[in-house]
């Protein structure tokens, strides 16, 4: 559907009206026959028809194109009243900027931001409504620190709420202690395996050193025996030399 023509100030060219809803074009598309339509209108029309509603020429969705630039410019320059005019808004602006204005208009009806509240209120009155809304939240006046809804005042029990919070904290603490315990046990197991591996490596190195030491001692003994043999041979040679 297009923009209600009654909202516009001054004359609106016939070529800027939707050929289906007869209101001012909204998000316009143009057929090859140059008739223009609101996007929603022509798409709805083509669900049940395959021709232009003006001249009955055959058209298809794939043949629809954006409005000519000069027509688009003429459309954007049209002046119209805000849709909240009946609520008191006196703003008149171009069609090009109307959406931006209406998104921020102080007279727009918006929902209350409090969960559970179904009231629709003008944006300019929202702060006043929030101050008295029965679904507004506030801190408990008894000092327990909880945020409560005004609608729940009669059901709020500080002791029960604090006891529930305490139980939750205790459960959370137990979970954290268990997690820390499991993590520490995992680390200890990892360190224990590392120490066992290290001990095994050191034991092998010790055994290798013992083996090397045994071979060295055997070599030393062999050298000492050879030295004694050599000394005896020298002494025998010296005796024979003296006899000669």
From TrEMBL:
Pfam family of the protein (one): zf-TRAF
Coiled coil: 192-243
PROSITE patterns in alphabetical order: ZF_RING_1 (PS00518), ZF_RING_2 (PS50089), ZF_TRAF (PS50145)
Annotated RING-type domain residues: 18-56
Zn finger residue spans: TRAF-type: 101-144
GO MF term set: ligase activity; zinc ion binding
Annotated keywords: Coiled coil, Ligase, Metal-binding, Zinc, Zinc-finger
Highest taxon above the source species: Eukaryota
Domain TRAF-type as annotated: residue spans: 101-144
Signal peptide, first to last residue: none
GO annotation (BP), single: regulation of canonical NF-kappaB signal transduction
Protein name (record): RNF41 ligase
């Amino acid at each position: 559907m297009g923009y209600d023509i009654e909202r516009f100030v001054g004359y609106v060219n016939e070529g800027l009206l939707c050929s289906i809803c007869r209101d001012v074009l909204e998000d316009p598309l143009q057929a090859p026959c140059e008739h223009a339509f609101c996007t929603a209108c022509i798409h709805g029309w083509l669900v049940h028809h395959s021709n232009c509603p003006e001249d009955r020429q055959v058209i298809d969705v794939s043949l629809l194109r954006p409005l000519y630039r000069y027509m688009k410019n003429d459309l954007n320059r049209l002046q119209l009243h805000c849709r909240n005019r009946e609520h008191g808004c006196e703003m008149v602006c171009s069609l090009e900027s109307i959406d931006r204005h209406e998104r921020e208009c102080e007279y727009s009806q918006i929902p209350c931001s409090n969960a559970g509240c179904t009231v629709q209120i003008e944006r300019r009155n929202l702060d006043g409504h929030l101050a008295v809304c029965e679904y507004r939240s506030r801190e408990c006046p008894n000092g327990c620190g909880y945020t409560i809804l005004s609608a729940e005042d009669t059901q709020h029990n500080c002791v029960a709420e604090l006891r529930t919070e305490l139980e939750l904290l205790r459960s959370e603490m137990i979970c954290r202690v268990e997690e820390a315990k499991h993590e520490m046990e995992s680390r200890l197991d990892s360190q224990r395996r590392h120490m066992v591996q290290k001990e095994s490596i050191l034991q092998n190195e010790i055994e290798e050193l013992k083996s090397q030491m045994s071979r060295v001692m055997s070599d030393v003994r062999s050298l000492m025996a050879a030295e004694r043999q050599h000394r005896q041979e020298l002494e025998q040679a010296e005796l024979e030399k003296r006899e000669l």
